[in-house]
Amino acid sequence: MEVYGYVRISTKSQIEGYGIQTQEAAIKEYCLKNNCNLIEVFKDEGISGSDFNRDGLTEMLSNLKGGQKILVLNTSRLWRSDAVKVLVQRELIKKSSDVLSVEQPTYSIYSKDPNDFLINGLMELLDQFERMSITLKLSAGRRTKAKLGSKACGNAPIGYRWNEHAEIVLDEKQAEVVALIFKKYLEIGSLEKLKRYLKIAQIKTNRGNDFSKQALAEILKNDFYKGVLRHSDLVIAGNHPPIVNKIVFGKVQALLKRNRRGRVEHEQRVE
Fold first, then answer.
1. 3 state SS of 7
2. How many CB atoms lie within 10 A of CB 207?
3. Kind plus residue range of the DSSP H or E element containing 5
4. pLDDT tens-place values along the chain, 271 residues long
5. Longest dimension (CA), the chain
6. Where is 260: in which H helix or E strand?
7. Which residue from 22, 58, 53, 27 is spatially nearest to 41, judged by alpha carbons?
8. pTM
9. What are the two backbone dihedrals, phi and then psi, of residue 94, each rounded to the nearest 5 degrees?
10. Distance of CA 87 to the CA centre of its chain
11. Distance CA 133, CA 5 (A)
């Protein structure tokens, strides 16, 4: 029997205990014990099982031919939502394929046996329960961390970076850029002019792109830069070093508000 292996990890892979190597080893062991011809193993890393648009999954489905099957550690590697489950199963049925699961040996998308249906359904429910439990624990841990004044998750705003201890620290070079953006906006008084200034000065974003007006507005309105930490409904003083002082930040907000009001009044006169 010819099979394609499929492995996937999300950003919580280590906590879930289903690392890429663990999944791949289980797939290869299954093939040896069950005399399966493993053609190739497709991978998706750092992608949620609730997302159907996965390069590895898409390539695997396009390579499937009649009679070939997909082998996974368990079905949660293929889908994490009913919507994705329906889409994947529809593609498999079109190609007369099926799913083999190392941890769910009786699983089949064509199963009509009530016992198998119950067992497979319970396995998926238990997997979903475990995922929800992990999510709740992570959420509680992040909130506790935030209450202590530390950024708990997400991308580091420009001017900061995550260090090896999962702490937010200054990115000295980009922090200078952020400070310059605040300073120049107060001097120039216009997002469009500020955008042109940065382009002429060849000052780029972290990704090497020119700053857009929207990106500049988001930076100027972000009170993280004056030392405020926001997490869900929490708004407290953070432990991270501020890049601009409260006076400068307040002046920038006043100027942004004045410019917005001026634009609205101008648009109303034009109408």
1. strand
2. 6
3. strand 2-9
4. 999 999 998 865 444 556 889 999 999 999 999 999 999 999 998 888 788 888 999 999 999 987 899 999 999 899 888 778 888 888 888 889 999 999 999 889 887 767 656 656 666 776 677 777 767 777 787 788 888 888 877 888 999 999 888 889 999 999 999 999 999 999 999 999 999 999 999 999 988 899 999 999 999 999 999 999 998 888 999 999 999 999 999 999 999 999 888 776 656 665 5
5. 78
6. helix 246-270
7. 27
8. 0.50
9. -60, -35
10. 21
11. 28
Q: How far is CA 3 from the centre of its chain?
A: 30
- Give dist(CA 162, CA 169) in Å, integer: 6
Report whether 210 contacts 195 (CB < 8 A).
yes
> 50, 15, 53, 268: which is closest to 139 by C-alpha?
15
Q: Which helix (H) or strand (E) holds 88?
A: helix 82-94
Residue whose token pair is 């550690």: 73
* Rg (alpha carbons) of the chain, rounded to whole number: 26
Are 167 and 150 in contact by the 8 Å Cβ rule? The answer is yes
Beta carbons of 104 and 120 less than 8 angstroms apart? yes
